[in-house]
Amino acid sequence: MASDTARPPWRGPFLLTLPALAVLLLVMAVPLGVIVLRSFTDPAPGVGNYVWFFDTPVNLTVLARTFKISFWVTLCCVVVAYPYAFAMSVAGPRLRLLLILCVLVPFWVSGVVRTLAWVILLQDSGVINKGLVWLGFDKVKLIRTQLGVTIGMTQVLLPFMIMPLYAVMRGIDLRLLQAARSLGAHPVKTFFQIYLPLSLPGVFAGATIVFILALGFYITPLLLGGPQSTMLSTLIQQQVLSLLNWGRGGAMGVVLLVATFGFLAVASPFMRQKYKISGGGR
Amino acid sequence: MTLASKGAAIDIRGVSKFYGNFTALDDVSLRVEPGEFMSFLGPSGSGKTTTLNLIAGFTDLSTGEIRLGERSIGHVPAHKRNIGVVFQHYALFPHMTVAANVAYPLKQRGMGKAERAQAVEASLRKVQLESFAHRYPSELSGGQQQRVALARAMVFNPSLLLMDEPLGALDKKLREVLQLEIKRIHRELGSTFVYVTHDQEEALVLSDRIAVFNKGRIEQVGTGHELYTAPQTLFVGQFIGESSVLRGPHRSAGDETALTLGGATLTVPGAAKGEGPQVILLRPEAATVQAPGTGPRDGRTNVVAGTVREMLYLGSAMKYEVALAGGGHVIARTATQESPFAIGSPVEVAWNPKDSTLLADDGSTAAL
Ligand SMILES: Nc1ncnc2c1ncn2[C@@H]1O[C@H](COP(=O)(O)OP(=O)(O)OP(=O)(O)O)[C@@H](O)[C@H]1O
Ligand SMILES: [Mg+2]
């Protein structure tokens, strides 16, 4: 033992990260650097692009909306994924495989195709509205609304919520619930006092991933949304590809990036755990 | 708030538990007296945990009735039974400190904060962990975790405490320390304890009485001494302590039975147990090993001839395994001899008939 702790830490693990680091540097850091640079230099040196961004009300509206939609998508994902992941974690091996496939198979289909499927479902004469009419309800405007965008994005992002939740839930010892009951806790309380707190790390992990992915979502809001549900990525795309304004597009990207980091900084204390889940015997 | 502090009796009456076609418990009846320390001992899969889970309310009865004190608890949900349970896997809540774990049952019972803190401290003091109150379970050793689990299970003064192999995951040294602690706590609390174990030594050390389980039934209930000296079934005789089993055709006359083994006739007190084949169960310390022809030939002592197959020196004693001429073998333990019999030497094994037991042959073989 003593020699173990005395020995300097092996540098091998660090070397193993080199290929990934190299790729990240090439595809992430360099383009990002260029974007940041251009946001301060294109068309003229200075902070003009940022001044423009915060001086243009529509930009701020869209930024706020981007956060709002991402928030709702994250919430919907948590609500839908939680029982699903729980079922996965307690299912027998065959049912579990089936449930995992149900999550993963749509994942293998391209996002564009899935979004187009949602267009068919959500449009005014689509399956959902026909169903509503058949049941005697009024039609609901879904396509080109924030509701439609939220529904579509929730479906696309759901696997990113389910997988981390499932990973955490699988590690929760269900016998703890038995123990809690023997100590006098009603089954409902055993859920809220024992199971839920133990599953929260999975909720936070999944929610962070979903929220951050949602902030930068492009295809789904574009195809399912209308003018009232434009998200920031769409604006960036317009600036860069339609207006060829790299500086402004870059500035918007940087604002989104900084906002995302800000969110992470706020969220990360919640994700730190004071305990290890595997407190038990073996 | 008032908490019962005296032990309650458990009455298990004709309880069975089926899983599909499988009978995990077959018409078990058992009474545990108030304040008694009862151990469940038996091989793996014999139904010990099942019985405990039925008492705790984790599984539903198939048939029968369970009473705790005056109350029939068969249909009371687990969280209303007020029974403390200690698990082999500790089952501490990993997201709560030691103090919060121990306070948990008190919180469920609506005890006030100040009173709770006092009770938690007192309970942790009983297991000598007062100074660990603010740690998380993952920061404790296995033995410490099990102590916390014990403190948590007894903090609400349950009239009954169930423990399912609580020391099973710990090493021998620690087990012995905790056995003494559990025994002391049992004395201090006065609650009824039901303790499941694989380890017969542990059962003998701890319990007032032991219930021996086998294949979903209770074979015998008794003190360790009763089980050792007067087993009622071959299974119990073989499961508790070391023994030799002698098989052969038998003939009963009055209250004595004779078994023929090779050329020897072995007598044993008591009439044949049932119609089937009979066996003689012999404890190692009852048998003497002697040179052929040296023992008394009074017709009262059983003598069989054999060859020393194994000889073990155990310090204060020695153990012989003698292969008998008529088949089978006998294990004998004697005081250390100056000149022991060598392996392969012809010997006689002798014992007083009243030191052996006649039992029906239920086909069980030596426990592992
Ligand atoms: N949920 C269940 N479904 C089907 N069979 C079960 C179930 N629980 C237990 N059994 C069976 O019931 C029998 C008794 O199990 P039990 O857990 O009571 O044994 P045990 O005496 O506690 O054994 P061990 O010493 O190994 O813990 C076993 O054969 C087991 O396979
Ligand atoms: Mg068991």
Structural write-up:
The complex is a heterodimer of chains A (282) and B (368). With 282 residues, chain A is mainly alpha-helical. Chain A has a single domain (46-281), classed as Orthogonal Bundle (MetI-like fold), CATH 1.10.3720.10. Chain A contains 14 helices and no strands. With 368 residues, chain B is an alpha+beta fold. Chain B has a six-stranded mixed sheet with strand order 6-7-8-3-9-10, sandwiched between helices. In chain B, strands 16-20-17-18-19 form a five-stranded antiparallel sheet, with no helix packed on it. Chain B starts with 9 loop residues before the first strand and ends in an 8-residue tail after the last strand. In chain B, a hairpin with a 2-residue loop joins strand 12 (250-253) and strand 13. Chain B folds into two domains: 10-235, 3-Layer(aba) Sandwich (Rossmann fold), CATH 3.40.50.300; 237-360, OB fold (Dihydrolipoamide Acetyltransferase, E2P) (Beta Barrel), CATH 2.40.50.100. Helices cover 23% and strands 35% of the residues of chain B. In chain B, helix 2 (98-108) packs across helix 3, helix 2 packs parallel to helix 4 (142-154) and helix 3 (113-126) crosses helix 4 (142-154). The chains are: A mainly alpha (282), B alpha+beta (368). At the A-B interface, helix 10 and helix 11 of A face strand 6, helix 2 and helix 4 of B. The structure holds adenosine-5'-triphosphate (ATP) and magnesium ion. Adenosine-5'-triphosphate binds next to strand 2 and helix 1 of chain B.
